[in-house]
């Protein structure tokens, strides 16, 4: 009888040992599955985070350009910036672009010594109804052929438009938000940021010119 009890206990011990080994192995298998699941979820998760960050930066860039256009538009409207009037406030097209670049330099690469992706169009119109509202595109390329620097004088109606070709870093999202090419550039499509302000100049005094 004692021999039978001893064998039964030995058998129970082996069974418990096998169960314990099986439980440990299952736990190890679960840990491996968790790692695989995390790896599968991490890729789209980090892509989403990166897309959110890039979208936020692009939104901040849009606000920066809008603020700069509004500020310079006020200076044009009040006669703090003039063109061909014979006053000390007159500036050239190159000086105007540099002034615009300085306003957006915190977010944009822009300047006389860089390959700028910043474009502007400043023209006067007979009335507000004559102002075009469409973005000048030709076959998916920004058409700058009609862009001009011709601000009007006192009491004239003017429109300042600024365009910036924002480079999209995430290749995964470029086909969905980057839809404009820059003429003469070999780079991929860009996301076009546009800022516009329309205004009537104040009747500020001038000393000469037109």
UniProtKB/TrEMBL annotation:
Chain segments annotated as transmembrane: 38-61
Protein name: Pilus assembly protein
Annotated ranges, domain TadE-like: 32-71
Entry keyword Membrane: yes
Keywords, in A-Z order: Membrane, Transmembrane, Transmembrane helix
InterPro entries reported for this sequence: TadE-like_dom (IPR012495)
